[in-house]
Amino acid sequence: MRIAANEDRFHEECGVFGVYAPAGETASRVIYDGLIALQHRGQESAGMSLSDTEGPMGNLQTKKGMGLVSEVFRKEDLVKLSGNLGIGHVRYSTTGGSTPENAQPISMNYIKGSLALVHNGNIMNAAELKEEQLLRGQAHYTTTDSEVLAYEIISERLKSASIEEAVKRAALKLKGGYALLIMSPRKLMAVRDPLGIKPLVMGRKGKSFLFASESAAILSAGGEFVRDIRPGEIVTIGEEGMKSDDSLCQDRRAHCIFEYIYFARSDSVMDGIAVHDARFRAGQALAGVDRVEADLVAGVPDSGLIAAEGYAEASGIPFAIVFHKNSYIGRSFIKPSDEERRSAVHRKLSVLRSAVEGKRLVLIDDSIVRGNTMRQIIELLRQAGAKEVHVRISSPPFLYPCFYGTDVASSRQLIASEHSTEEIRSVIGADSLAYLRLEDFHTMVGELPICSACFDRNYPV
What we know:
With about 450 residues, the protein is α+β, with helices and mostly antiparallel strands. It has helices at about 30-35, 70, 75-80, 125-135, 145-155, 165-170, 215-220, 260-265, 275-285, 305-315, 340-350, 355, 370-385, 420-430, 440-445, 455; strands spanning about 15-20, 45-50, 60-65, 85-90, 105-110, 115-125, 175-185, 190, 200-205, 210, 225-230, 235-240, 240-245, 255, 270, 275, 295-300, 325, 350, 360-365, 390-395, 430-435, 450. It has a seven-stranded antiparallel sheet with strand order 3-2-4-1-10-9-11.
């Protein structure tokens, strides 16, 4: 997750998708469909690597570039990327800049063969591993976390009997939250961090095996969700079928709560929890935090809508759609002025005056980062005649940095770390402001062990 200089919203940094299909089939179109379904997890770059398991050992093909999946891959690209085994990636930059060189997959040749990998998350000890690699003369000075992972696996492969052994030996050295898909010309491997901070799931499509960051991507690609990859599990798919190594699994878990608050698609299921239901329950719990007299409940599209429905049901205040969202706004990664940032909000959202004029609103959103966007939304509502705007946030205040791939490097990026709730209310221009309580996470996800360090500073690693 990052906060770019021109944005007032958290972003997950990437999504991964992999396919192992029977020999003779083509995986590129399935990967494309899976990446389209994961586009919300990364919009800066996209890529995929393919291999024919019956072809030459060094036949990995990789294409990647800047932009959306539909911009990077044309129909002719999918035809050229032949092979029944492949991995794909969509990316937001966290470690490493927004450049073509940092797009994934990372594909490398070495003395024993070749491999490609895609990565979601953050390796906290990547700098230490890189220093060791530099001493071995292996890495270079611009290495990203993903390249560090690739170099580490290659280093272990040179002294291991198999790629499975090499990946396991490399995984033993890693600290942080991560989901990895690794392919050799003949095998596909899925690796999830031992705490389960980052999500990774498995599915089937006929005789094909599918892996993805979210179950919704499995379904969108025409597959059937099978199960989550267990935290610490290493799954290998090859000619002999599927093998699972659970020797790195442990009892302690810490699933990222922000997947349920915002990152994941609402139609995904993660570690037994339906994301839609979790957000609805968060809204219900939020209604009990601070009662307010109002005429209607509305959500900020799209992230606040489900929680708003839950709030409305629990409070008895009618739910209403009060915004029209323009879904066809083009991407703009560089907005150099405050005026352009304000214009971006106006282009994206417009208020239905007939729904809000003279009304007292409860406005639900999943988070407040800097407060700029919320302030502009409230201005739009008041211009449309809203009488009162009471803001309710379906997460606690963000106070602390995160080091597991939700890359908030400093608390100074978060308005709640330096301002009280009353001060924030004044900054955004709301009539009142209240947040979900930490204890309400149990209502949201039950007894699921979670990482909530960005709210409570309780870091699991």
